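Hi there,

I know you've been waiting on this one. I reran it after we fixed the sequence typo, so this is the corrected version. Both the input and the resulting structure follow.
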Amino acid sequence: MRVEHLTSQSDVSVLLERLDVDAGGRKILAQKSKLHLIFIRDLHVGAANILKQDALSIGADLAVPKGTIVAKTKAVDALLMATERQLLELSRKELAQPFGLKELAGELKRFAMMRHPEMTSIMGVVNANDDSFYSASRFQGKAAIIQIEEMIDAGADIVDIGGVSSRPGSMSVDETEELSRVRPIIDTLYEQRLYERVTFSIDSYAPSVIAYALEHGFGIVNDITGLENDAVAELCGTYHTTAVIMHMQGTPQTMQCRPEYDDLIAQIGAFFETRIEKAERFGIDDVVLDVGIGFGKTLGHNLKLIRDLEHFLKYDKPLLVGASRKSMIDAICAATPKQRLPGTLALHLEAVRNGAAMLRVHDVKEHVQALNVFKAIYDEESASGY
């Protein structure tokens, strides 16, 4: 007899198939293989006691403060520990319970139904301005086209083109000036029909710039204001394009002036819910969510968002992460933008592990290689080792 301890990242579904487990049994067992940790804030103490008993009755558990059973306080924070199957069962049980548990039931079901993306897309960055924080991402004219073709050859799925820097403290630019920066690149891409080889994204929140890009083969609008402008939302709906909704606290000029949150995850979640609803009102079918690494966040905020990214899978939208060569890496290990590729790869691979469907990167070739190795660790073929 041999015994092997497997990690929580092992592909349980593949192992169950290799064990020739009955197809119906595979689904049930897979639901039991992953433990969900759900932190619940300000839970009514009566709800906490009910949820605790219901959780224990099905093999899950709820960690609560001392004194909860005697209702020492009116509300408590709690940590629910349950498998996918247990979450689904609890979501049914709590529908008939008081103290706000009916609303909680809906959230538990959303968490139970979350799914990681089957693949991760690489979005290469090309800046048509002279003040982006990473100088190696700045390209003009023919050099921009050469860089874009190199990114396509290296395996980019998307190329994101922008004419205005959004680094902390950057100055805003008139729409006319912004369009003059990107228009020559857009025209050349259109003339050479490069949009047939890769999806192009316009990194802008200026309606005239976005309209010009969409008229010339672009398929994604990457809006750091998260569809704040109705005119942008209307364009996305009219052209049936994908809209990237990014969260940002403040503006590029103010966002890093002591960013604070009462509840980081809840506040970003509330923002996404509002903007998803707005997207739907404007007929936007495809939405990507970006938590906005470095946009009005401290180092601690950024790390938490990458670590807890999976939370946002509950919205059933692809998640984009863009931490490429950002200053948070310097805050951890003192590195200039040119020295931050290793840190970037570490952050992005962790984001993929936690549910990212898209990575916005400066270094396409290196990310393609890193993702291929990462996937090889967990893909079906790796199960042959069993």
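Quick highlight: The chain has two domains: 34-112, 121-380.

Best,
R. S.
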